[in-house]
């Protein structure tokens, strides 16, 4: 039998954690033949709740789950970790300024970056889900100087999946038949879901839809504001869909994108498409053998250029703010 892969999940007692852990343990993260060992990180007040979830994991008798350990100390939680899902974060509360939010999250992602640097396995892959995800990933990365920077990623797969669902609804074509969609930039309201290179049943998506008004005034805002719409409807933020996207992100990273398709991942920029080097920004990405590559050579039209610049500027501002706070 194979050696179990060690997966660390932070914020394990939260609502995304609850939706995520059972899918990891049942083989959806890495594959139906890959045993996993879970390490859960929580704050001390939430350890008891995490223990409850671990009891339920036991009670599922998942053949692939070789054990669950719970920690309130980052240094221990990332020992030997192969895959880290950084879900726990400090949410924005009433009256909190952006600087306060970034600082509070710096207090979480700096020590976690250091712990990953010190103790994680050589093949460590990190996905940051906790918001502001791109900038939290940047903070963690900058405190893990010995880990190659391509191992730090942030999640825009939920935005990608939301865009697939909206396009499928509009055109009546199954999500399976929609390829090469891209989310650019920040996981925030400025993100840019781009259909100009996408294909629907083999034909260009923008031409198939042929409705610029719908793209600008319906599709883009619906995708970008979907999180708020879920809160409005459900009375709580997206959890199962976020967990599902986290599963998709890591599964695709490890197992590869299909020929003739790509995905969206926030990864460290090498300057492609005018995105300043070092920012963690969402790009069209292919994956193979556990490595990602930014899709090169796409034409960016004027409409897309303006949208990409706006979301990337926001990321530059966030980076400047955390630099000023001494967090990176
Ligand atoms: P919850 O508030 O339900 O859970 C968060 C958990 O994190 C809590 O149990 C808390 O105790 C724990 N936590 C806080 N600080 C911690 C630390 N230092 N170490 C370990 N655990 C810690 O939030 P949930 O709904 O699960 O969402 C988690 C994060 O995902 C939030 O930041 C949220 O904004 C973000 N999201 C990101 C998405 C994305 O697409 N990138 C979409 C969904 C979601 O909104």
From TrEMBL:
| Protein name as annotated | Malate dehydrogenase
Supply the NCBIfam families for this chain: MalateDH-SF1 (TIGR01759), PRK05442.1 (NF003916)
GO molecular function terms listed in the Swiss-Prot or TrEMBL record: L-malate dehydrogenase (NAD+) activity
The Lactate/malate dehydrogenase N-terminal domain covers 6-145
Which reaction equation describes what this protein catalyses?
A: (S)-malate + NAD(+) = oxaloacetate + NADH + H(+)
Arranged from A to Z, the UniProt key words for this protein are: NAD, Oxidoreductase, Tricarboxylic acid cycle
Domain Lactate/malate dehydrogenase C-terminal, first and last residues per copy: 156-320
Record bears the keyword Nuclease: no
Enzyme Commission number(s): 1.1.1.37
Q: Which family does it belong to?
A: Belongs to the LDH/MDH superfamily. MDH type 2 family.
Q: Where is the active site?
A: 187 (proton acceptor)
Q: Which branch of life, at top level?
A: Bacteria
Q: Which GO terms describe its biological process?
A: malate metabolic process; tricarboxylic acid cycle
Q: Which Pfam families match?
A: Ldh_1_C (PF02866), Ldh_1_N (PF00056)
The reply on keyword Transit peptide is no
Name the positions where NAD(+) binds: 11-17, 105, 112, 129-131
Gene transcribed to yield this protein: mdh
Reported function? Catalyzes the reversible oxidation of malate to oxaloacetate.
Question: Residues that bind substrate, according to the entry?
Answer: 92, 98, 131, 162
**What HAMAP family does the annotation carry?**
Malate_dehydrog_2
Q: Which InterPro entries match?
A: L-lactate/malate_DH (IPR001557), Lactate/malate_DH_C (IPR022383), Lactate/malate_DH_N (IPR001236), Lactate_DH/Glyco_Ohase_4_C (IPR015955), Malate_DH_AS (IPR001252), Malate_DH_type2 (IPR010945), NAD(P)-bd_dom_sf (IPR036291)
């Amino acid at each position: 039998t194979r050696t179990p892969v060690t997966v660390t999940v932070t914020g394990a007692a939260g609502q995304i954690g609850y939706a995520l852990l059972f899918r990891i343990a049942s083989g959806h993260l890495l594959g139906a033949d890959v045993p996993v060992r879970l390490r859960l990180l929580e704050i001390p007040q939430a350890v008891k709740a995490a223990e409850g979830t671990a009891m339920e994991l036991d009670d599922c008798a998942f053949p692939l789950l070789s054990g669950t350990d719970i920690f309130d100390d980052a240094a221990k939680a990332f020992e030997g970790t192969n895959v880290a899902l950084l879900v726990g974060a400090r949410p924005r509360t009433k009256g909190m300024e952006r600087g306060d939010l970034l600082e509070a999250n710096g207090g979480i992602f700096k020590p976690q970056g250091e712990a990953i640097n010190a103790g994680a396995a050589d093949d460590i892959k990190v996905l940051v889900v906790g918001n502001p995800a791109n900038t939290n990933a940047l903070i963690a990365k900058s405190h893990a100087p010995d880990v190659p920077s391509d191992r730090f990623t942030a999640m825009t797969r939920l935005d990608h999946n939301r865009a697939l669902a909206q396009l499928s609804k509009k055109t009546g074509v199954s999500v399976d038949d929609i390829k090469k969609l891209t989310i650019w930039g920040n996981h925030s309201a400025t993100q840019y879901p781009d259909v100009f290179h996408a294909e629907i049943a083999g034909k260009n998506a923008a031409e198939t839809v042929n409705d610029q008004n719908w793209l600008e005034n319906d599709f883009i805002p619906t995708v970008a504001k979907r999180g708020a719409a879920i809160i409005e409807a459900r009375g709580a933020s997206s959890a199962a869909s976020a967990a599902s996207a986290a599963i998709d992100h890591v599964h695709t990273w490890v197992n590869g994108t299909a020929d003739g398709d790509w995905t969206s991942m926030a990864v460290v920029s090498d300057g492609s498409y005018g995105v300043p080097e070092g920012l963690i920004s969402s790009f069209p990405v292919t994956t193979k053998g556990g490595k990602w590559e930014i899709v090169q050579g796409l034409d960016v039209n004027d409409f897309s250029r303006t949208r990409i610049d706006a979301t990337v500027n926001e990321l530059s501002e966030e980076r400047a703010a955390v630099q000023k706070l001494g967090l990176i």
